[in-house]
Amino acid sequence: MIPFSPKNAVRLRMVEDLSLKSAIVANPTRLTVKGTPAVIRKETAGDIYSVKPFESYLAGGDVSMLSVSKMSRNSPFYKATYIANAV
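^ thats the sequence. predicted structure below, dont judge the formating
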């Protein structure tokens, strides 16, 4: 799964977390600025993607939001990071 798209980056992060079942059934959806709480918007550098809440080993609890951004300015790849315990 190559992270050429934000959705694949979200799924890859979930696979790396060993949340395989969650990654398979995940339907990452991009939140609008209006739909994202202001506190979360300030903490992240990228777009916010929402997934069905799942238990994350890396984040140490339930996660339902991830921040997705380009790996570098000219890169075709994306990376996703958890917004810890954002349920």
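The first helix runs from residue 6 to 16.
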